[in-house]
Amino acid sequence: MQVWNNKRLLSTGLLLAMLCASQCVWAQTERNDPGIKGSRKHVLEEILVTARKREESAQDIPLAITTLDEGFLEKIGFADLSDLAEKVPSLSIEPFPTSSSTLVAFMRGVGTIDAEQASRDAGVGIYLDDVYLGRANGLAADMADIKRIEVLRGPQGALYGRNTIGGAIKYVTADPSGTLGFKQTLNMGNRGYLRSLTSIDVPTWLGVDARVSYLTSEKEGLVANAGSGDDFGEQDREGYRVSLKSDLADTLLFQYAYDHSEQEGTSLYAQRGGPSATPGLATPLYTRRLGQSFRPVDLPIKDNFEHNGHALRMTWDATPTMTFKSITAYRNVESERLNDSVEAFGLPVVNAGTLDQSQFSQEFLLNGSLEEKRVDYIVGLYYFKETADQKTAGLTNAFALIENPFDPFNAFRPPQLTDLAAPLEADVVNASSAVFGHVTWVPPIAGDQLSVSLGGRYSRDEREMERTISGVAIDTGGELSKDYTSFDPSLTVDYQWSDNVHAYIRLATAYRSGGFNLRAGTSDPFDQEELLAYELGFKSTLWDQRLRLNAAIFRSEYDDIQLDFVNPMDFTISTINASDATIEGVEFELTVLPTDGLELGVDYAYLDADQKDAVIDPFTQQSLEGTSLPHTPRHKYNTYSRYTLAALPIGMLTAEINYSWHDEQTSNGGPGSADRPREDFGLLGARLSLYQIPTGNGDLSVSLWGKNLENAEYQLFALAGADVYGELRSYGVDVIYKMD
Q1: Over the stretch 180-233, which tens digit does the pLDDT of each residue have?
Q2: Residue 406, pLDDT score
Q3: How far is CA 267 from CA 101, 185, 231, 527, 543, in A?
Q4: pTM of the model as a whole
Q5: pLDDT of 624 above 80
Q6: In a domain, 7, yes or no
Q7: Is residue 520 part of a domain?
C-alpha cells in the first residue's frame, strides 16, 4: 500500500509541477504526429473543427472542446467510444452492467444511468457526421474511417439542442479524396485480440469520388464461464462504410454515406462485492476479481447488436458569403441481450431484452456572414422522429429457485429460460422539432478584439408509449403521451488579448425532455431537466507555438434531476424529479514541446457535484443528501510523455509512457451509492513505435503497446452488492501501412 501511495504522490507531483492554471483543449495535429514527415518540427499547429456548424480553428472557439485527430486515435488504439474515457476531462464512459455494448456517458456530472431505455434520452448527445444517434444501445460499435472526434463540454442547447444538456461528442469521418489511396491497419494483442481496418479511395469516375472501409475484430472473454455458455466479455465485431461525393456544379456538393456495424458477444461479469439483500442465502463475498464464474452458466448468454445508417448531405454555396446545407438521415439499431448475474446480488438475477429502433432526421442550416455589419450567423430547422419496439423480461420469482436452503452457498438451482416471466413490451414513439439560430458580432470597438455571440433554440419533444404483457395493456388508458417544450439561449463574450491568447465568458442553458420509465410499476411520467451554466475560459498558444494551455472554470445549476429509485416490494424502478444540484468544476489541458523531439501533455478535471437538497428515497425514506452525482469523480487526470528520436536509417523511433488517474465515484447515484462508491484507480500504459519504415512505396509503421501494465484490478461499476471489473493488463502490436 505504501508503494501505491508513493506512486500516487509522484504522479500528483508531476501534475502540479507541469501546471499552474485551469483547463485546456488538447488537439494534437498531424504535423506533430511521429508518423508524418517533419514531425520533429518544434511547433504546435492548429486543427480545424466544425463544433459551431462551420469550419474554424479549435483554438479560436470560445468553448471548452477537446479534439482528437486521426494520429492520436491511432496512438491510443481507438476502437469504440469507451476508449475516450481516460483521455478527456470531465468525461466518464462505462459499459452498462447488463449490456456492455450499451455505453453510459456522463460529462460534467450529467448523463443517464439506465441508458438502455427507448422511452428516455441521454444527457450527452452522440453525433456521427452531425447526425444524432438516438439510442445508446450498441454505442460500443467499432466505427470505421473516423478522421476526428470533437468533444464539446457543457450544455450545447443552442446548436445541439437534441438533449445535449451535459455536452456533445461528434464523430467526423473521412471524405473520399478523388485519388487512388489505400490504408491497412492491423491491431493484435493478448486475449486473442485481432482487429483489421481496410480503407480504399477510388479515383474519380463519372464525376463521383468514392471511399470504402471494412473492419473486423474479435476478442476472447475476460472471465471464463464454468458452464457450457460463452465466456463473459467476448466480442466479435464487423462493420463497413461506403462514402460517395460529387460536385454536380461549382457551387453544389452532394455527399452520401452508408454505414453498417454489428457485434456478437456477451456482457461483462458481475460478482458479489458488497452487502446482500438476502444474507442468509448469499453467495460468497469476493474482494478480488474472479477469473471464472462462481457457478456454471449454461444459458445462451448474449450481447448482440446491429446498426445501419444512411446519410445524405447537400451543400449549396448560394452566394460567396452564404451557404445552405441539408442533412437527411435514416438509421436503425437492433439489439438483443441475455444476461445472468450469477447471484452477484445474493439472489439469481437473469434478464433478457430486445430493441428494434428506427429514426429519421432532417436538418436545414443556413450559414453566412454580413461583412459590412461584422456579423456571422447560423439559422436552422431540425426534425427528428423515432419508433421503437422494446421487450424486457426477468425471473418470475428468484426464491422459487431455492433447492437447498441449508447450504447458503448453493441455495439455488441454475436458472433456465423457462423461469423468465412473459416479456413486457413497450411501443415507443418520440418526435422532436426545433428552430435555432446563432449570431456572432464583432463591434467596431477595442480594435476588433471583442466579439459577442448570441444563440437560442426553441425545442418541442413529443413522447408516446404503450406497454403490454402478453398483448394486454398494463397502463390505465393504454397509450401514454406527454409533450415538453423549452427555449434555451446562450451568450458568449470573447476578448482577444493577442494573436495567440483570448479569454471568454459564456452563459448557456439546455434541457433534457421528460418521458416514461418502461420498468416502472406506475405510468406516471417524469418531468424535464434544466441546466444553466456559467463558464470562464482561457485559451493560449505560447512560447513560439511550443506550449498550449487552455483552461475553464464553470458552475452549473442543475434542476429537477431525473433519479431512479427501486421499489423493494416488486423491484420495479421509478424515475422521479427528486433532486437539484450545483456543479462546480475546473478543467485544463496542457501540451508543451520543451526540447526537440520531446512532448509532454496533461489534462485534469476537478468536479464538485454533490446533491445539495434533502433528497429522500420515496420507497425506503433513505436520505441521499450529500451523495455525489453518479459517474462524476472529484479528481481525474491523464499525463503522458513522448520522445521522438532524430531520423534513423530504418525510420523514426518514438517512445511514450502515459498514466491516468480516476478518483472514486458512485455508480448509480441512488440508494446504496454513498455506502459503496467505486474505488479510485490509476492505469499505466506505454507505447514504442517505429514510423516511416522504408518500403519503396507508401508509409509503414509498427508499434508495440501495453495498457494497464501494473495489472490493476479496478471496478467499472460498484452496484448494490455487485462489482463489475475492467480490463486486465493487455499488450500487443499495431501495424499500419498507408499508400496515397
Answers
A1: 999 999 999 999 999 999 999 999 999 999 999 999 999 999 999 999 999 999
A2: 66
A3: 7, 27, 9, 32, 48
A4: 0.91
A5: no
A6: no
A7: yes
Residues 189, 735: Cα–Cα separation, whole Å: 12
Q: What confidence score (pLDDT) does residue 667 get?
A: 78
- Distances 537 to 211, 487, 552, 607 between C-alpha atoms, Å: 39, 24, 4, 16
DSSP bridge partners of 567: none
Q: How many CB atoms lie within 10 A of CB 248?
A: 11
Strand partners, 611: 581
CA atoms within 13 A on the CB side of 269: 26
Q: Which helix (H) or strand (E) element contains residue 70?
A: helix 70-75
User: Cell for 428?
Assistant: 415507443
Q: DSSP letters of 412-474?
A: BPPP-GGGBPPPEEEEEEEEEEEEEEEEEE--S-GGGTEEEEEEEEEEEEEEEEEEEETTEE-
CB 126 within 8 A of CB 102: no
C-alpha cell at 458: 426553441
Which DSSP category does 6 fall into? H
Give the CATH number, domain containing residue 429.
Answer: 2.40.170.20
Alpha-carbon distances, residue 311 vs 243, 254, 255, 256, 326 (angstroms): 10, 11, 8, 6, 10
Domain count, the chain: 1
The predicted structure's pLDDT at residue 569? 67
Residue 11 lies in a domain: no
Q: Tell me which residue range forms the domain holding 135.
A: 19-739
List b or e across 139-157, with b for residues whose CB sees 16 or more CB atoms inside 10 angstroms. bbbbbbbbebbbbbbbbbb
Instruction: Assess contact for 423 and 352: CB atoms under 8 A.
Output: yes
**Any domain includes 340:** yes
Q: How many CB atoms lie within 10 A of CB 184?
A: 16
